[in-house]
Automatic annotation (TrEMBL), chain A:
Pathway(s) per entry: Protein modification; protein ubiquitination
Organism for this UniProt entry: Mangrovimonas yunxiaonensis
Gene3D superfamilies, sorted: Single-stranded right-handed beta-helix, Pectin lyase-like (2.160.20.10)
Source organism superkingdom: Bacteria
The Carbohydrate-binding/sugar hydrolysis domain, residue ranges: 51-190
Protein name: Nitrous oxide reductase
From TrEMBL, chain B:
Keyword Membrane: yes
Organism of provenance: Mangrovimonas yunxiaonensis
Designated name of the protein: Nitrous oxide metabolic protein
Residues passing through the membrane, by range: 20-36, 42-67, 88-112, 124-147, 159-181, 201-219, 231-252
This protein's UniProt keywords: Membrane, Transmembrane, Transmembrane helix
Automatic annotation (TrEMBL), chain C:
InterPro entries reported in the protein's UniProt record: AAA+_ATPase (IPR003593), ABC_transporter-like_ATP-bd (IPR003439), ABC_Transporter_VariousFunc (IPR051782), P-loop_NTPase (IPR027417)
Swiss-Prot/TrEMBL keywords: ATP-binding, Nucleotide-binding, Transport
Protein name: Copper ABC transporter ATP-binding protein
Gene3D superfamilies, alphabetized: P-loop containing nucleotide triphosphate hydrolases (3.40.50.300)
GO molecular function, one term: ATP binding
Positions of the ABC transporter domain: 2-226
Phylogenetic classification of the source organism: Bacteria, Pseudomonadati, Bacteroidota, Flavobacteriia, Flavobacteriales
Domain of life: Bacteria
Length: 413, 260, 235
């Protein structure tokens, strides 16, 4: 219902926008025009092609003029594993409502179900992609939208699988309400700036649910990243905003809810990190603000490795993590202030809601575990509690200025 | 044996110490839940308490019961009863009454708190199961110590030492050896080390529930198989059972050879 | 009734029984005497199966007691120190022992004789030493077994109870039972015992009637007879 309203609005818009000259071409297996390629060939710019229910075997479909191509009742485009299926090379193309399967796999070419090449103002929506190599691949494209697509891969190994939605040198793209699973990276941005990634669910992917490389000024919010090889990776990027996302059950040896590597000036707010091996893994990242996040039942809520300067952790909830913070150096230049720590045991005599003794989130044991990982088996042992306590009283191995001077007594709402 | 068990159990259920123990757990449960108002935190605190305190109380109580009922035991020995039935009966009486105090003491406040509607019920049940196992293991160890030592003071001394060793010292040595041999693959060593100490074993069982996220962070293949599948759970439970059976067998054989 | 052959027992390096041979075939009251550490209690406990001998055999009513517990059905034993589970009531203790051994013959009569009715609902932990000993006696005599073993039965008893106890022992003898007693009270032994079994340094030094013992040592009473044995042996 909703999507049909959207269709009509889009068609209305297109109709009005292009002086009403646009025509509609119908494609169905028994129609005079029974192939999509043929329909594109005869269509004039700004025409609408309506593809009816049926299975269309086709690959290398090139959309080289501004067209609106709509599938009715999800017609199937079967690429027969022969190569790329749809390539968009024109501006103002809308692709809507197809079931696209069997993208060819190659070790030399990144075949995609849908590729947008050097184009603007595209809309790709309501697609279902299965048995794919790459899903939706945006290449040097701008100002487009990728909405409501469902991408279900069956990737087993990283080297011969592709990404669900990939952006390469693309700007100002909105990626919303997509559902991606079973591919290498759910959503991958490389050299892509000013993109918005909202309300997506990315789960069960081999590598990352979402992956940024050399991309700046992007925003992602309200997404859920569950049970991926390693959650979300943000690398070599600047000014990324990460709001209201959920990172859960990213379990494994090199698994994180969020991996930050060489990230500067990011803002991480209102996210939930739950039951990940590592909530956030930070390497060489500076001036990042972490506020109002919930870290719940992670192995490590935050693991800081390498040089990280002037990061700020304020008003976060650290709840029942095996380790709250882990550091691998004795130097600390980061600020922890007004967080709630469930393992804080201090008191609040002046009843101002702030604990009267500072909290030290780095335990000696986390230092030991960094050094000899197998010692993790002694977690929560009385002996470990004793040595942690002695370290707390007089820090020798852990940064002595690393503490939250104002630990909150009540959980932050 | 069942008759002895019955009378030992009745005797203990009426003893002051059972009430103290029961009241302690009741209080602990109430304080943790109703003052803290946080189920997850309560479970974590409880785990620390159970792993440290249950073995201590099991050992002390076991030794105490044995020495206190020595004359009564002699009376029983003169009756047409098998020695194994007398000692197993008494052992089970102590272990059962302690377990009852633990389960009821903690269970009642948790039920009132609305445990059945909460999803931590499995964590909680696991805690109680582990606590019960620890009670059975350490009471059996205590009986072993008492059977081997006529001298009460010595018996108590050894009991405390045993607890101190298994609860603290063992882990210290364990940690040192892991750090010392960190250049070698330590998967097997660390898992074996855990299996050989019932307290560590119970801790692992609980870690599997509470800290699985952290445990899965390690590369070793054996670790992965142990923690990533049900294997760890099954092996730990089996080992706990072995830890009950072995000392009980020794109670039987030791009691057969002993002079009273 | 009781056959003991070459019984040896040592605790560590301390030899307690060093080849005891003892045959008791008939009924009657036998007092097992001897200085401290002579092995009286060890002997009794061996008969009861509480001490496991190093060597030798013990047969009760013709059956070897080794690895056997059923023979104890035929023994009533009064232990030296009566200490019962503190939280049980007297009534419950009696019921429990009955539960463990089977039906009794004269439980009510015994309770009446030692005036224990007011204590039946009291916890054992709250009783005085004498009352506990009375309960102990009731527990022993309420079964009708052919062999009765009493270890220091007089401990803590008042004169009236003592009279009752003596009467009880006599009554058991008249039923043709074998009664084995250890005691430090020589007058008690002298009054009640038919035969004396005297243990010294782990062997039976003397077994015979009171009269024979007096004749052998040419002493007027038991106390002096024993003193004389001890002085001649240690002189």
């Amino acid at each position: 219902m909703l999507s049909s309203i959207k269709h009509s609005i889009i068609m209305l818009f297109l109709g009005l926008g292009f002086f009403g000259h646009a025509q509609t071409i119908e494609v169905c297996p028994t129609c005079p025009i029974s192939s999509i390629k043929e329909a594109i060939k005869i269509a004039q710019p700004n025409d609408t092609i309506i593809v009816k229910k049926g299975t269309y075997k086709a690959y290398d479909i090139v959309i080289d003029k501004p067209l609106t191509i709509i599938g009715k009742d999800h017609p199937v485009i079967d690429g027969d594993l022969k190569g790329e299926i749809i390539t968009i090379t024109s501006d103002y193309v809308t692709l809507d409502g197809f079931f696209i399967i069997n993208v060819g796999t190659s070790y030399t070419k990144d075949y995609a179900a849908v590729r947008v090449k050097r184009s603007q103002h595209f809309v790709i929506q309501n697609l279902v992609l299965e048995k794919l190599f790459f899903g939706i691949y945006l290449e040097k494209s701008k100002n487009g939208k990728v909405f409501h697509n469902k991408i279900v891969g069956n990737a087993v190994a990283e080297h011969n699988s592709g990404n669900g939605i990939q952006l390469w040198y693309s700007q100002n793209v909105e990626i919303e309400h997509n559902f991606v699973e079973g591919v290498r990276d759910g959503i991958y941005l490389e050299f892509s700036d000013y993109c918005t990634i909202k309300n997506n669910v990315s789960s069960n992917n081999l590598r990352y649910g979402l992956h940024f490389m050399f991309s700046n000024n992007d925003v992602y919010e309200n997404n859920t990243f569950e049970n991926n090889g390693a959650g979300v990776a943000v690398m070599f990027s600047k000014f990324i905003k990460m709001y209201n996302n959920i990172f859960t059950e990213n379990w494994g040896t090199a698994s994180y809810g969020l991996l930050l590597k060489e990230i500067n000036d990011a803002d991480i707010r209102n996210n939930t990190f739950k039951e990940n091996t590592v909530g956030i893994n930070i390497e060489g990242s500076n001036r990042v603000n972490y506020s109002n996040n919930d870290f719940i039942s992670n192995g490590w809520a935050v693991r800081v490795r390498g040089a990280c300067y002037t990061n700020k952790f304020t008003e976060n909830n650290f709840l029942y993590n095996s380790f709250d913070i882990s550091y691998n150096s004795k130097v600390n230049d980061n600020i922890f202030d007004r967080n709630f720590w469930s393992s804080y045991t201090g008191y609040d005599l002046d009843k101002n809601g702030i604990g009267d003794v500072p909290y030290r989130p780095v335990k000696l044991f986390s230092y030991i575990v960094n050094r000899t990982p197998e010692t993790i088996i002694l977690l929560r042992s009385l002996f470990i509690d004793i040595i942690d306590f002695s370290e707390k009283v007089s820090p020798v191995f852990t940064p002595d200025n690393l503490m939250d001077q104002n630990p909150m007594i009540k959980q932050i709402p | 044996m069942l008759k002895i068990l019955k009378y030992s159990f009745y005797d203990l259920m009426r003893s002051r110490w059972s009430y103290v123990y029961f009241a302690f757990y009741l209080l602990l449960g109430v304080v943790l839940l109703f003052l803290n108002n946080n189920l997850s935190k309560a479970i974590i605190t409880l785990m620390n308490v159970i792993i440290v305190l249950v073995p201590l109380i099991g050992t002390i109580f076991g030794v105490m019961y044995y020495y206190n009922s020595k004359e009564f035991t002699e009376l029983l020995l003169a009756q047409p009863l098998k020695r194994s039935s007398i000692f197993l009966g008494q052992y089970l009486g102590v272990a059962l009454s302690l377990s009852m105090s633990l389960i009821l003491g903690l269970g009642i406040p948790f039920i009132f708190y609305g445990l059945f509607k909460s999803n931590v019920i499995w964590d909680f049940s696991l805690l109680l199961i582990t606590g019960t196992f620890l009670t059975f293991i350490f009471t059996a160890l205590a009986f072993n110590i008492a059977l081997s030592n006529e001298n009460k003071i010595k018996g108590f001394g050894y009991a405390i030492l045993l607890w101190l060793f298994l609860a603290v010292v063992y882990d210290g040595i364990f940690l040192m050896s892991l750090i010392l041999f960190e250049d070698y693959p330590l998967d097997k060593l660390s898992l074996t080390g855990t299996m050989l100490n019932p307290i560590d074993l119970s801790r692992t069982l609980i870690l599997l529930k509470l800290d699985i996220s952290a445990l899965l962070g390690y590369t070793g293949a054996i670790f992965k198989r142990f923690f990533g599948t049900n294997l760890g759970f099954i092996v730990s439970l089996t080992m706990l059972l072995v830890w009950v059976i072995l000392p009980v067998l020794r109670i039987v054989s030791k009691s057969k050879r002993k002079d009273f | 009734m009781i056959q003991i052959e070459q019984l040896h027992k040592q605790f560590g390096k301390n030899v307690v029984l060093n080849g005891v041979d003892l045959n008791i075939n008939n009924g009657g009251i036998f007092a097992v005497l001897g200085p401290n550490g002579s092995g009286k209690t060890t002997l009794i406990k061996s008969i009861l199966g509480m001490v496991v001998p190093n060597k030798g055999t013990i047969s009760i009513q013709g059956t070897n007691i080794k690895k056997n517990s059923e023979y104890r059905k035929h023994i009533d034993y009064l232990p030296q120190i009566a200490n019962f589970p503190n939280n049980l009531k007297v009534k419950e203790l009696i019921r429990m022992i009955k539960d463990l051994r089977g039906e009794t013959t004269n439980e009510q009569e015994l309770i009446a004789r030692f005036k224990l009715e007011p204590f039946l609902d009291k916890k054992l932990g709250n009783l005085s030493g004498g009352t506990k000993q009375k309960v102990n006696i009731v527990l022993t005599f309420m079964f009708n077994s052919p062999l009765v073993i009493l270890d220091e039965p007089t401990t803590g008893l008042d004169p009236i109870a003592l009279i009752h106890l003596k009467a009880l022992i006599q009554a058991e003898k008249e039923k043709g039972k074998t009664v084995l007693i250890t005691s430090h009270i020589m007058s008690f032994v002298e009054e009640i015992a038919d035969e004396i079994v005297f243990l010294l340094e782990g062997v039976i030094y003397f077994k015979g009637t009171l009269h024979e013992l007096k004749t052998k040592t040419s002493q007027p009473d038991l106390e002096h007879a024993i003193a004389s044995i001890l002085t001649t042996n240690h002189a």
